[in-house]
Write a structure and sequence with these properties.
Length: 278
């Protein structure tokens, strides 16, 4: 796994460093929920006063949509209050804050890809809690990056527990069913982190959509993964109604950026599967 490194270790504080995206960072003060509970303001401020970072990369989040829907208070505690605490630290020590958000802040009703200037209208507790985090960062700080992404894959066996990992774990089956009415922008976490680091290095501020080029349905994403694996598995398209869930379905989370351009998602997915799974 190739990692990205160009920051001094004592300049950057990273939360949620053990997660998928954090696995591609090889610099900074890397923390996890045990070493830095973002919901504990005193713990956060003590860590900041000790390390005095110039940049805070806030990756820690509750991203399991079903868990957020089943326990909204927990979602808000981590995604909103935790973000407030990190923003409070950034404000106190004068650090740049980098907050990772999601295409889930949109309602999914647009006919086309969402740009940075589109108005959020989250429909799930996950989306609402992440959008509240955005509002907190924007309201408290001037020097910040809000980086929205979508349908992340990466980390390889062990860290990847998302859609691609589930497809790979089933590729020897005769048939896999995947929905063809939910659309998004599959994004390699390594590409996301590399682009995000470039924005930090260049001193950029504001809201940025960071996704690999293009968009597709989960059905198309699954077909591409199976093709890369060289499997003969049949991918059968089905509607979202085939998988009844408590969490509201967001039919379109596709993003596009006016500021950055990444390689096509198919190319990124091929590299990921061939280098980190095969």
């Amino acid at each position: 796994m190739k990692e990205i490194s160009f920051f001094d270790q004592d300049k950057v504080l990273i939360t949620g460093a053990r997660g998928m995206a954090g696995s591609y960072l090889n610099f900074g003060i890397k923390t996890d929920r045990e070493s830095l509970d973002v919901t504990d303001l005193k713990m956060v401020l003590d860590a900041g006063r000790k390390h005095k970072p110039k940049v805070i990369i806030h990756l820690a989040a509750q991203t399991d949509m079903d868990k957020c829907e089943n326990d909204p208070d927990h979602a808000y505690k981590i995604n909103a209050i935790g973000t407030y605490n990190m923003a409070e630290l950034a404000k106190e020590i004068g650090a740049k804050m980098v907050y990772v958000s999601t295409g889930g802040v949109f309602d999914g009703k647009k006919d086309g890809l969402y740009g940075e200037d589109d108005t959020p209208n989250p429909q799930t507790y996950y989306g609402r809690s992440k959008y509240l985090g955005e509002l907190i960062v924007r309201g408290m700080l001037n020097d910040y990056i809000i980086a929205r992404t979508c349908w992340l894959f990466g980390g390889g066996p062990g860290k990847d527990k998302k859609f691609i990992s589930k497809i790979i774990s089933q590729f020897e089956k005769a048939e896999i069913k995947a929905v063809d009415d939910q659309f998004g922008s599959p994004t390699f976490a390594k590409d996301f982190i590399k682009t995000l680091c470039g924005l930090i290095k260049d001193g950029k501020t504001g809201i940025f959509h960071i996704v690999n080029g293009g968009a597709c349905s989960r059905f198309e994403e699954a077909k591409e993964a199976v093709k890369i694996l060289g499997a003969k598995t049949k991918i059968t398209p089905v509607s979202s109604d085939s998988f009844p869930e408590k969490t509201p379905v967001i039919f379109n989370q596709g993003l596009i950026s006016r500021a950055v351009s990444l390689r096509p998602w198919q190319e990124a997915l091929r590299e990921y599967i061939e280098k980190e799974w095969k």
